[in-house]
Amino acid sequence: xxxxxxxxxxxxxxxxxxxxxxxxxxxxxxxxxxxxxxxxxxxxxxxxxxxxxxxxxxxxxxxxxxxxxxxxxxxxxxxxxxxxxxxxxxxxxxxxxxxxxxxxxxxxxxxxxxxxxxxxxxxxxxxxxxxxxxxxxxxxxxxxxxxxxxxxxxxxxxxxxxxxxxxxxxxxxxxxxxxxxxxxxxxxxxxxxxxxxxxxxxxxxxxxxxxxxxxxxxxxxxxxxxxxxxxxxxxxxxxxxxxxxxxxxxxxxxxxxxxxxxxxxxxxxxxxxxxxxxxxxxxxxxxxxxxxxxxxxxxxxxxxxxxxxxxxxxxxxxxxxxxxxxxxxxxxxxxxxxxxxxxxxxxxxxxx
Amino acid sequence: xxxxxxxxxxxxxxxxxxxxxxxxxxxxxxxxxxxxxxxxxxxxxxxxxxxxxxxxxxxxxxxxxxxxxxxxxxxxxxxxxxxxxxxxxxxxxxxxxxxxxxxxxxxxxxxxxxxxxxxxxxxxxxxxxxxxxxxxxxxxxxxxxxxxxxxxxxxxxxxxxxxxxxxxxxxxxxxxxxxxxxxxxxxxxxxxxxxxxxxxxxxxxxxxxxxxxxxxxxxxxxxxxxxxxxxxxxxxxxxxxxxxxxxxxxxxxx
Lengths: 352, 254
Known about the structure:
The complex is a heterodimer of chains A (about 350) and B (about 250).
Chain A: H1 18-28, H2 30-40, H3 43-65, H4 70-74, H5 78-89, H6 96-112, H7 124-135, H8 137-140, E1 143-144, H9 158-166, E2 176-177, H10 180-185, H11 192-198, H12 204-226, H13 233-252, H14 260-264, H15 269-276, H16 287-307, H17 314-331
Antiparallel strand pairs in A: 1-2
Chain B: H1 2-8, H2 11-18, H3 23-33, H4 44-49, H5 54-77, H6 87-109, H7 111-117, H8 128-136, H9 143-173, E1 175-176, H10 181-184, E2 193-194, H11 203-206, H12 208-245
Antiparallel strand pairs in B: 1-2
Helix pairs in contact in B: 1-8, 3-9, 5-6, 5-8, 5-9, 6-7, 6-8, 9-12
Family (chain B): Belongs to the NqrDE/RnfAE family.
Function (chain B): Part of a membrane-bound complex that couples electron transfer with translocation of ions across the membrane.
Subcellular location (chain B): Cell inner membrane; Endomembrane system
């Protein structure tokens, strides 16, 4: 007798397994990786390779220590995705041990210690990123510049990238430059338009290169929405939150604040919105919750970029909102079909 | 504060007051089973704040141990003369006096370390482990067991401090036993072990979050050893029972 051996929910589509979802997210980062490689050399690719090897090694080791099936959990590609996201986020010239530290910390302390995929309260990639950003601020804030603006005059060659990562390249200063966010943060007494006219890192070529990176991740993110792997709520809310706050302060003080467009197209805005904030484990689950969660990240990113100690705030913004995600989910639980308004939580408004 | 003393007041403490003092158990409790840092989680503030190097941890650990022994002896001596209602203020006064003594001694002999540890030496007064032991043990027991309790509890606390300090110093700076001359005189200046030359300082381990994670790892290790011991005992019990229950139907029964 042919009994159905599938469990609820029965709405799921065949083939949509965790491994497939993770694989699709990894594939969606490819446009961004290509643009980063084109602009900043092969460092990103080498970082991703180191990160992937470390992630698989650390995951296998800790699955063994915890007495879990190794191959089964490795096949879900989640460790690989964490590695790819970290490899993208780390600057292309960081030494290899820094990447290894970040990924090992992300897999071991942010994921396996909590019980593996599905139980981690924080986004593992961002925990790893935050740890190395706090620990090694100098290599972590050293980004490569656009070829036309740096003294080397060209993007880093493959051998230079390799020696920067594995041996310390003495001429690395010829390739590095402040990111637009970093330069804008440290513009000192300059007015906005003066800074954009005089500071090297705020020239059109530099701004455009970061815009291309962001556009590439936007394209990858839209593909993920098209495949219905992520919903539009979190990224749109995050970008809207960032844009609204940026517009507010730009209107308030146009001579010192940057335009909303500058905030949306620099740093990790798009990458964070589509690939980091949408992590299904550590973010909110209800649609209304996702809107609140995303908006919170967007506002925090602006706050950290403008008044915080670090040039970009996506990692800390996401981690802080990860803290709040269970609370947001509690208050935004949707109404079950056929039931009245949920009674949980504080009654806001006229619920008589 | 009272809730802390309640947690410290385990069943074993009460037992020892009724029947004669079991010194072996006192030592085992202080160092392992009821360790103030790993089990009672008392005195976390100095534990997390000053354990960035071995020498800082050892300095504060020894100071805490001396205060704990002194206060336990003093509290035990006056235990029959203090009214219950005013016992806590009295204990705090005693602890504060001993802390002041230690502070002056450190200022006199280890001035640099005194400056590094700063506010955390006077803050020994507020270390819950000390008041906890005074109220839970010393106020109900004779002098000698109380002194031993202070010694073992203080030793247990110091060991955890030094372990955490070593972990954080090793991961944070790649060295061990640096600046030991602050505590042991100029001869100790050469004790510094540089395990990794050209080590990039990992600020995370030196900053307070590293202390939290380090303490978490130590607690997890302790629980792991306890669990393994329990399983080993359970396995031994099960093995014994099997042997005794075996029924032999053939051959000679021995």
